[in-house]
């Protein structure tokens, strides 16, 4: 007897969820995938009917999938608005392809698209910043630089556009990795989840494993990027990702458990309500000088905003 999908009991399964034991056919996988994203949005109270929503879209599988899903959801709410934001860090041989994918997707869906670059915002592209750091013999890993400044610029663009909500495509895997990385770096100001500030940062894939986003993107046939960033090898995240992937393979469901544990800690921290600010830019920071100001001053750069 051939295997059948756990849910519909009739079609051929194409995906196994090891943490739940379900084996799912294409249709049931897609249905439960979307259902979970919608449930996540409502559980964390992420969206309201009249929100102006920005989606950070890099052109990778996660952000393109999020854009498609939010586009579908937003169509049901005529008082809301949706637009896409792409940060061009200035990485030769990498960003060009993904940028084109985002431009084409937004055109096809009729979504307004904003592009903002490191070069315009900070006076240097990521490639140039890395050269400067090497000349000055300052050791900052490209991914640290890229991640901190991308987030900073995204928030700046989102604030300028007066967005209510900024959605990023971080998956369950990304979020748990970030919690671990912050812990290993001694940063207690762990991943900001949902707050009252504008724009509110939301992560609709926070309860969805990365593998499932990838499989959904594959089933939908989204055009995905082939180029790999030349700095990816240097990322500390790779070590944490490999460790967590191995752990999850041996103990399915461990990522969900880790997320719930970190969320409990985070809630307690929010209750403490610590509001410290950077003495240079005045933005919220758990340090005296925030990471953005620290990095830019080391490179002798200043934001143009
Ligand atoms: Fe930026 Fe690192 Fe990702 Fe490259 S791999 S885009 S440098 S975070
Ligand atoms: Zn089925």
Structure report:
- The chain is 48% helix and 10% strand.
- The protein is built from 11 helices and 7 strands.
- The strands form 2 sheets. The protein has a 5-stranded parallel β-sheet with strand order 5-4-3-6-7, sandwiched between helices. Strands 1-2 form a two-stranded antiparallel ribbon.
- Helix 3 links the parallel strand 4 (81-88) and strand 5.
- The protein binds iron/sulfur cluster (SF4) and zinc ion.
- Iron/sulfur cluster (SF4) is lined by residues 89, 91, 142-143, 146-147, 229, 231-232, 235.
List the helices and strands and how they pair.
Layout: E1 15-16, E2 23-24, H1 26-43, E3 52-56, H2 61-74, E4 81-88, H3 95-109, E5 112-117, H4 118-122, H5 126-135, H6 142-160, E6 165-167, H7 172-184, E7 200-202, H8 210-220, H9 236-250, H10 254-272, H11 291-298
Helix pairs in contact: 1-8, 2-8, 7-9, 7-10
This protein binds iron/sulfur cluster and zinc ion.
Write a compact overview of the structure shown.
The chain is 48% helix and 10% strand.
Helix content: 40-55%
**Secondary structural class:** alpha/beta
Element-level helix/strand string? EEHEHEHEHHHEHEHHHH
Q: What global shape is seen?
A: globular
Describe this protein with a few key phrases.
305 residues, five-stranded parallel sheet, 48% helix, globular, binds iron/sulfur cluster, binds zinc ion
